[in-house]
């Protein structure tokens, strides 16, 4: 994408005022975004992002600059702008670059850029038909399609020089059901680090119908009771609670500045012993997977909590300096417009031994959440609040009537201690995670789990 | 390739591929941003980005594509993708390429004074504010965020119908959140401001404002949960109006997403209420002389004496409605497709002071801050349920801060229940929807208030 000698010049210019590390990130990304509403294509937009980000460290100071002007003069100007924020004499020269050859760990069969868009439209229309025809109360279906090819080049003053191609796709189906009085939404948004084969092999009969089934089911749901209950959270996207309330607290961004309840606690018991929490960027073709991170480090499997004991954090190069710990292959960013920081990839609770049937039949009176909705967390405290998209009452070991308006309220660190059963049906759900370095694709995941006690907020209607 | 050369080659190539009307929309932006934490520069960022969007009619359908790289490959990429994208568009009424308005009003939204301020000068001012914050009160324990941002941008529209327009603007913004602690109680106070007038930043006053905001929330008491008259302070009123500003878009109305759909000419609000959309507001962040289709912008009344005068249109929504565009076509950037947005839209202030409005309340709540605007408000139904901070008022006087509240109601009802309008116009910094949206303090007859 850029010649080695230009990159070396940029890395050198960035160190001219005393920086001790410089890095170049070049990105060339092709995207297609399509929206289908009411059976018709509403938007079809294609784009090419191209830019470069330059980062300089000096001790615990970090400077970032980015530009779309990729002429040599433009790049050197950007490097000088970055260096300008630091004052001093040159202390080091970059190590000569040696190209590292990597093989993509996530094979791509059909490149989306070489796929006719009509095939993409056809998949969307099929999803629409399935969702719309699921039930007569389905009023609206919105289908969104995204594919992208992100080509990156990462080089730094330590001699790192590596290129990678990331191909991803995602389809989001949103159904809205109405019985004339109320409106209920249902959503499913599968995604993968795969080419167009992902869409053609996607089980639309399942995903599109599920989006509508959730919406229709919730029409006949009763208001959720408030109080403290045992809560059973099903697999896949159920993992979003632990992603928000624990995952973010294990990122170096929070830990390095001591803004996390998990800071300084490696080796301590932070969760119930049935909990093993893992971040694994190497899972083949998963939505949150990477071959290398955005600092050029190889993806790996990081065990964060093992049988309840805190084992490690997710660390990027810069926060690693403050913590005195090496990178864990967790430096990620949305695009060249963001400096990378420690982020999750595919984060999940490892499989346990209980069958889902056992978990339910062992629960006398509680709440079962089949699909989670959105929520928010205060990072410093770990207090969270999540809406449940589809919930049921559990009575005498059986799933009962559907409940609407349920929210789960609690504290991440406390909830981790209260997990008392872990199922054997691990599944992953695709999502977008927003933080300091932008919005990035991640998987959240877990098998079915049970939390012995959680605060459930019912739907108090506004009079 | 420079923009002119790129545009020429692009139009040639597009024509060869069968496009008839074409447009290129180009934007360039330079930014600087930094964050401070206890005297240290916590982050420092500069950037310079540019990109071009191509839009063209192929067989009568509009196709879109954008690029950030102006090279050979991108010419091919834009034309081929826009052509392919156009083929799936099934709507009958199409966007078109506009040949230009007869008159474009003058307007300059670029301050050359601000452009001269150097990065070290900006940082020095910012550090001074931080010093004053820590000196002001010993209960200040830190800052949640302390961010400075400045930007300078320009945009061009050029099309095959001979239109060629250029606009330029700049601004500087500050986002400050101060944390104070007293006993077990922690409160924050924010100061957020975006402007083109660098001299309007007075460090001591900014520090005082932010710290006082936080201190005034201390000793928060509970209050009975019930319906109260609510005084929405100017910034909170502006945030609420911003959240619901999409209801004035004809595009949303035509999609059935605004209850103002068939209300033009009807009374939708209290008689005192006047709302205007003013693209020429001197310090307005959305000031512009032409919209994203190249149509000359105009200042217009949206609500007059409570009556809805017009919705906001672009050329396509206007054609659907059999009207003229209002010059409110909007693209978030070269990456976005064409939609509708207010420019600088605000409630015209009256002559009542803040204290005078408080004095008229026998028992009520003042709301100084709203949170959860992303998730707690539904502009389609108008319903909202939002976290709020503020004070309890009795017999015309502020009694105390109130613990975290939830205020709930319906925005369409709020418009009708306005009983007083202040003189203190302020603009919202919660950009939950596009547009620079302002309001003075508003007294609302009643809203449901739940106290923690």
UniProtKB/TrEMBL annotation, chain A:
Instruction: Tell me the organism's taxonomic lineage.
Output: Bacteria, Bacillati, Bacillota, Bacilli, Bacillales
Domain Metalloprotease TldD/E central, first and last residues per copy? 111-219
Query: Which of UniProt's keywords are assigned here?
Result: Hydrolase, Metalloprotease, Protease
What Gene3D superfamilies does its record include? PmbA/TldD superfamily
Pfam families, from UniProt? PmbA_TldD_1st, PmbA_TldD_2nd, PmbA_TldD_3rd
Where does the signal peptide begin and end? none
Please state every residue range assigned to the domain named Metalloprotease TldD/E N-terminal. Answer: 23-85
Protein name (Swiss-Prot/TrEMBL) = TldD/PmbA family protein
**Which InterPro entries does the protein's record reference?**
Metalloprtase-TldD/E_C (IPR045569), Metalloprtase-TldD/E_cen_dom (IPR045570), Metalloprtase-TldD/E_N (IPR002510), Peptidase_U62_metallo (IPR051463), TldD (IPR025502), TldD/PmbA_N (IPR035068), TldD/PmbA_sf (IPR036059)
Residues in Metalloprotease TldD/E C-terminal domain copies: 226-458
**Naturally occurring in which organism (per UniProt):** Cytobacillus citreus
UniProtKB/TrEMBL annotation, chain B:
**Which chain regions cross the lipid bilayer?**
none
Q: What region holds the Metalloprotease TldD/E N-terminal domain? A: 23-85
The UniProt entry, under InterPro entries, shows: Metalloprtase-TldD/E_C, Metalloprtase-TldD/E_cen_dom, Metalloprtase-TldD/E_N, PmbA, TldD/PmbA_N, TldD/PmbA_sf
User: Residue limits of the Metalloprotease TldD/E central domain?
Assistant: 114-218
Q: Write down the superkingdom of origin.
A: Bacteria
Give start and end of each Metalloprotease TldD/E C-terminal domain: 225-450
Family the UniProt entry places it in = Belongs to the peptidase U62 family.
Specify the protein name: TldD/PmbA family protein
- Organism classification: Bacteria, Bacillati, Bacillota, Bacilli, Bacillales
